[in-house]
Each structure stands twice: as structure tokens, then as C-alpha cells.
Amino acid sequence: MKIVGCDLHTRYQQVAMLDRETGELIERRLEHQSGEAKAFYAALSGPVLVGIEATGHTRWFERMLAELGHELWIGDAAQIRASMVRKQKTDARDAAHVLQLLVEERFPRIWRPSLQERDLRQLVWHRQKLVWMRNAVGNQLHALAMGEGVCRKKQLFTKKGRAELQSLNLGAWASYRRQELLTMLDHLDASLKQLDQAVAEQAEQNAAARRLMTHPGVGPVTSLAFVLTLGPVTRFERSKQVVSYLELNPREHSSGGRQRLGAISKQGNPMMRSLLVEAGHTAARLDVELKRDYQRLKQRRGSGVAKVAIARKLAVRMYWMLRSQAKYAQLVRMQGSPWATLVKK
User: Fold this and answer.
1) What is the C-alpha separation between 47 and 29, in angstroms, rounded?
2) Cα dihedral 272, 323, 291, 240 in deg (nearest 10)
3) Do 11 and 30 meet the contact criterion of CB atoms below 8 Å apart?
4) Distance separating alpha carbons of residues 138 and 156, to the nearest angstrom
């Protein structure tokens, strides 16, 4: 069997390969554009295991190795770097270190969704990116209006508000900017309408997403994104692992019997975190228990902390709905038994 530790870059890769039959160790730098990398892997015979750190732009590499019949393992980049004792960092050292972890069976392999699931992720990601772009365009239009003493908030984008915005007496370039932003806004709205319809269709075809949509405040976008982000729910034994995976737990620096908690680390999926906060805000208006928790936390810690806390509670609920295959009706407290719940949170 041949084991390859690979330090993958966009234009080239550094490899360290061990042939277990002969004990031969090969270290090479392979260029991508010239086809040198593909030729190298195509020449390898027998079982081949390749390990790389988790990184972006790997789709072509995964597809190439799959076509050649080689096995690819992708490892947790943070754990791989943490296990490296020496501080000298070079491409050759990184490749050799990945190889060493593979040989010693210490490679921190991570779960990867299928190519179809990753393609579906592009749908929800693209939609969320356009939402953020639309918000940025809207903020610029708000700034133009407020500069002229007009503050309409959401009403600025109604038919009446838009007419008022277009009637403002601006300078030549400010008028040009206003028209450009309005055109962009119309284009983004049209694109988002199509994407929302596509997401709704995909969510309706997914049994897990349909189950999550029974919870108040959870729509097609949030449910589908949650299912695609978590993958097989059996990967997580406890809800705390889900919260940590989504980075909705506070940073902690405790020592000497003193606990110090900070803000959330924001190292997880920013799209999922944004969707959960948005869905949690709606759920807190529709669910009695979440509403009570939100009001209590808002009074004590402020609305920002309260929104994140509700998003965390909502993520835990959604996890248990998937884990137990329960709908929202089975989450609420049973009549006549105020202290018992069908699904433990």
C-alpha cells in the first residue's frame, strides 16, 4: 500500500509518499497546470491512500483521485497543526507531518458530505450571499435618504417610500449612484425570489427538513441549511457537540477555580449562525417558552445576548427533532404534566 501525505495549494502541491512494501520514501513538488500532479497519481498502482488538510478548492482533486481509484482522507486542519511540535513550517514539513499521522493512524479524519450535498449547499450559500449583498445595497440607499433628512427604515422600500427616495434632489453623481443601487436592488430581489422557490422545493423533498419546518419560525431556508450543515445527526452524541460545532457556545478561559466566559468565538458556519439568529427571533414571538426566555435574558443581558441564546436553544431543539424524529408537537410540554417533556433538551 502507498500512503501519501499532501500539502495542497492552488497551483502546486508538496507530497511525501511511503511505499509500505519497499519502505521507499519519495518527496516531490508537483505542479497542477502542467498536468504533473495528475500524471504522478495516475502512475501509482495498488491501494493508495492520500491525506490532506481540510481546505477550499479541492473538488477537482477529489474527483481526479476518485476517477483513478485512490482513497482520499481529509483531516481537521486545526488538529493537524496542533499536533506539530516544531515551529519551523515549510511545505515539505507539512507534507511529511501529514504522512506521519497517516502511518501512525493518528490522522484526524473529518466527515465530508457527498458531492450532491455539497452542490445543494451552494444553493443555500448563494442565496445567503445575495441576502447579505441586498442588505448592503439597502444600507447605502438608507444612507442617501438620511443624508437628505428622510428616515423611513423598512418603509423606504415600499412603493410610497421608493417614490419619495427617487424624488430627492441629489447631485449629479449622487443621483447616478441612487439609480445604480435601485437597479441592483431590483436585480437582487428577482434573483432571490427564484432562489427562495428553489430552496422551498428542495426542502419539501427532504423528510428531515420538512420535520424541522413544523417548528414555529423555522422555514425552508433554515431547515434545509441545518440538515446540510449537520449531515448525519448520529455524528453528534449530545446537543453540546452541535452547539460547539456551530460555534454558538461562549469562549471560555477558566483557571484556578474561576470561570471566565466571553462572547461566542464565531469560528463556525457564519451562514448557519445568521439563519439561526434570524429564525430564533421569529420563534421567540411564536413559542411561549422561547418568548419567556428571550424576555428574561433581554432584561438581564441585553437583546444581543438574548438573540444568540435563543438561537442556541433553537439549534438544540432542531437537533433533538432530527435525533428523535419528532415533530414540534412532540417537543411542547404534555398537558397535565408541566415538568415533563417528550424530548429532552
Assistant:
1) 22
2) -70
3) no
4) 9
Cα gap 28→40, rounded to integer Å = 10
Exposure b/e, 267-300, CB count within 10 A at least 16 = b: ebbebbbbbbbbbbbbbbeebebbeebbeebbee
Report field, pTM of the whole predicted structure over 0.85: no
Q: Compute the distance between CA of residue 261 and CA of residue 215 in angstroms, rounded to an integer.
A: 30
| Distance (Å) of CA 249 to CA 257, 309, 345 | 20, 9, 15
- Quote the cell numbers at residue 289: 417558552
**What size, in residues, is the chain?**
345
| Interatomic CA distance for residues 14 and 52, integer angstroms | 10
Whole-number CA gyration radius for the chain: 25
Set of cell numbers at residue 275: 439563519
Write the pLDDT tens digit of every residue in 55-90: 888 889 999 999 999 999 999 988 999 888 877 889
User: What amino acid occupies position 129?
Assistant: K
Q: Are 75 and 49 in contact (CB under 8 A)?
A: no
Q: Please name which of 268, 338, 282, 342 lies closest in space to residue 314, comparing C-alpha atoms.
A: 282
Taking 50 as the pLDDT cut, the residues of the chain under it are 334-345
283-302 residue pLDDT tens: 999 998 899 999 999 999 88
Give pLDDT, residue 176: 96
DSSP letter at 257?
Answer: T
Buried b (16+ CB within 10 A) or exposed e, 35-52: eebbebbeebeeebbbbb
110 contacts 77 by C-beta, under 8 angstroms: no
Q: How many CA atoms lie within 13 A of 123 on its CB side?
A: 22
Q: Do 96 and 16 meet the contact criterion of CB atoms below 8 Å apart? A: yes
DSSP state of 109: B
In 3D space, the residue among 109, 116, 76, 326 whose CA is nearest the CA of residue 231 turns out to be 116
Nearest-angstrom CA–CA distance, 142 and 148: 10
Please give the Cα distance from 269 to 259 (Å, whole number): 26
